[in-house]
Design brief:
Layout lengths: L21 H13 L7 H25 L1 H4 L11 H6 L5 H16 L11 H26 L2 H12 L14 H20 L5 H18 L9 H5 L10 H9 L11 H5 L7 H10 L10 E7 L13 H4 L13 H14 L3 E8 L2 E11 L9 H18 L3 E4 L6 H4 L3 H6 L6 E3 L2 H9 L8 E5 L4 H12 L3 E5 L3 H10 L8 E4 L10 E4 L5 H4 L7 E4 L13 E3 L3 E3 L4 E2 L12 E3 H12 L14 H10 L3 E2 L3 E2 L1
Parallel strand pairs: 1-3, 1-4, 4-5, 6-7, 6-9, 7-8, 9-10, 10-11
Antiparallel strand pairs: 2-3, 2-13, 11-16, 12-14, 12-15
Helix pairs in contact: 1-2, 2-5, 2-9, 6-8, 19-20, 19-23, 19-24
Length: about 625
């Protein structure tokens, strides 16, 4: 049987729970439009505004926590927030709805609340005194009570189920716990108002500062320098730190206080390791943290997908990228950020996860897709990539894999530019296209006898053609360059060369039902494919799926092994736990411990070897057919 007040009554409404704000918004709108005395219902606007600001404070703290390039050296817990924790904390803001309802009831029962003055300094002083003398000890003892077996198992265990502290964890609790918090936060407000010192500014200030410190305590990045406590030793009893509260989540019988460790000291529950751990974390903040074993060097695709980041919207980044209407208002701001990144930004840490005790990180070159096709920008892009490779080499990274346009043949020869320029590199540079080719080639059914290939003379196109002709599959290679075709033809075994056929028009494939798209094709060009055709593709961006009588493959990708830890964001349009094949290729290279660079042309003889290695390490192909 479910314990009372252990579940939210609107938990099954999903996004429609925000309709609960509707009466407040409707009341405020009606008063504004049709009533002479607008101030009469000003309380509705205040409640809505406070709720918005509270959500904004939590979002700012979340963004800061997920800016790993700023916080990585001050992490308290080294593991990442995974998809499970994100899903569990999805409705972290339920408490704001609850407290909005309670505030609305109070405003209706006590109309005098609508006539409070804007400012009264005595109210701030009174609320602070009431908080210290009543709210802090009340919360301390209530919190200890919630750690009793029955209350913990039925209520408080939900809050402690989040393995990594995060600002959203502060709101991840049951209705009963948030009702207690309502009392804790409401006593100073009520007392100040009853004393005659209440004000609108006092209500805003007290509520928002309360939320600020709640988020601070649940941050996984330490923000309070230990030097403060060295200069003001007594201050450690009057303000907690993220490290202090994290110890409560680790060792649950200590550090129960709300914001003031003084009450833990008085109650003999202050963890003696708090100050030492805090000093250790903040002392190491200027040093490099744990060295990653593998780095995937990515880039930004476009302005809209640039918002698909954990430090923008954590929940949105935890799902595959899709265009959403709510992103449009943020387009101008993102465009400005793109210009700033173009001028001043450096390659930065974007995300990370752990796989079999190895740290894997994604670094991002601060360039957008369109910039790779600007002739004057290529030198700067290569400089960023080179600096990232050299930095990885200095740190001791074992493998760095180049994503998409970072290994463009026209840009740097698939990475050969850097390997030739720095022959002493210890880090292995990998383009990952061998596994990309393997993924595409293993999508085919064994009875395929003929394929049509666009982008036939590209790096992947060449490898695909040479591999298939060895399997006695006829390849219609779309290219207008006879010279390039002849060069590839000479690489094929003599007895297989007749399986490679140069074609110059899409019409040549009107009877072929297997198309491999390595160069973007228009809807008109797709029309030449017969009904029932499947479009395999390795072109970026993917072609438009306009043919309802055909099927379309996704970009080559593989699912990471199930023992991956701390993964909490999706890689562009990939499903959860799925990465692009070039990312997976770098992972396999690192897990296998291969000592060679994988740059330039694809070694066709290694395609099967890399594929088998990927499967051996638990990576799995993703079904690519989307009807």
């Amino acid at each position: 049987m479910v314990a009372p007040l252990s579940a939210w009554p609107w938990e099954h409404l999903g996004i429609f729970k925000y309709i609960l704000y509707g009466p407040l918004a409707a009341k405020a709108w009606y008063s504004w439009m049709y009533e002479d005395n607008i101030l009469k219902d000003l309380w509705c606007i205040h409640i809505l505004l406070i709720c918005t600001l509270r959500g904004f404070i939590h979002q700012l703290w979340s963004s800061y926590n997920n800016m790993f390039f700023l916080t990585r050296n001050r992490w308290i817990k080294q593991q990442g927030v995974d998809f499970k924790q994100i899903d569990d904390e999805w409705d972290w803001d339920n408490f704001i709805i609850l407290q909005a309802m309670l505030a609305s009831m109070a405003s209706l029962i006590f109309p005098s609340l609508n006539t409070l003055p804007l400012w009264n300094l005595k109210g701030f002083i009174a609320s602070l005194l009431l908080h210290v003398t009543i709210s802090e000890p009340l919360y301390y003892w209530a919190h200890r009570f919630f750690h009793k077996p029955y209350l913990f198992n039925h209520y408080h265990s939900l809050h402690h189920s989040s393995p990594v502290p995060h600002p959203f964890t502060a709101g991840h609790a049951t209705p009963l716990e948030h009702l207690v918090l309502c009392t804790v936060i409401g006593i100073p407000l009520t007392g100040s108002i009853l004393m005659g010192y209440g004000s609108t500014a006092m209500i805003y200030g007290h509520v928002l500062v309360f939320d600020f410190f709640r988020c601070l305590g649940h941050s996984n990045a330490e923000v309070v320098p230990h030097e403060v406590f060295n200069k003001l030793p007594l201050l450690r009893y009057f303000i907690y730190t993220p490290t202090y509260h994290s110890l409560h989540h680790t060792e649950m019988e200590t550090n129960f206080c709300l914001f003031m460790p003084l009450f833990d000291a008085l109650g003999s529950t202050l963890n003696t390791k708090s100050l030492e751990l805090h000093k250790k974390i903040t002392s190491n903040s200027g040093k490099n943290g744990r060295v990653p074993d593998f780095v995937f060097l990515a880039h930004v695709v476009d302005i809209m997908s640039a918002m698909h980041t954990p430090f923008a919207l954590r929940s949105f980044a935890s799902t595959p990228f899709r265009m959403r209407m709510f992103l449009l208002p943020f387009w101008p701001l993102t465009f400005i950020i793109m210009l700033v990144m173009w001028g001043w930004s450096k390659t930065f840490l974007f995300s990370f996860y752990n796989l079999r005790c190895r740290l894997h990180q994604t670094w991002v070159v601060p360039r957008f897709g369109f910039q790779y096709f600007l002739p004057f920008a290529t030198k700067g892009i290569n400089k960023h990539i080179e600096e990232a490779i050299l930095r990885a080499d200095r740190l001791g990274v074992k493998v760095i894999s180049l994503a998409a346009l970072n290994k463009n043949e026209a840009l740097n020869g698939g990475g050969t530019l850097f390997v030739n320029k720095h022959p002493e590199l210890k880090v292995r540079v990998v383009h990952g296209n061998t596994l990309t080719a393997a993924v595409i080639l293993n999508e085919f059914s064994k009875d395929v006898k003929e394929v049509f290939l666009t982008g036939a003379t590209s790096k992947l196109g060449r490898a695909t053609a040479l591999y298939l002709c060895r399997k006695r599959v006829r390849v219609l290679m779309l290219t207008s360059s006879t010279e390039r075709f002849q060069k590839i033809l000479k690489e094929a075994p003599v007895d297989c060369q007749n399986y490679l056929v140069q074609v110059t028009k899409h019409q040549a494939a009107q009877n072929c039902k297997t198309w491999i798209v390595g160069k973007w094709i228009t809807p008109w060009e797709q029309s030449w494919a017969p009904s029932g055709t499947h479009f395999h593709q390795f072109v970026v961006p993917p072609i438009l799926p306009i043919r309802r009588d055909c099927t379309y493959g996704d970009l080559a990708a593989m699912r990471l092994p199930p023992d991956v830890e701390g993964l909490g964001s999706c890689e562009y349009t990939m499903e959860r736990g799925v990465v692009h094949a070039c990312h997976a290729g770098g992972v396999v290279h690192q897990l296998e411990g291969w000592s060679h660079h994988e740059v330039g042309a694809i070694d066709v003889d290694r395609i099967d070897l890399v594929w088998e290695a990927a499967l051996k390490h638990g990576l799995k192909p993703v079904s690519s057919v989307n009807n």
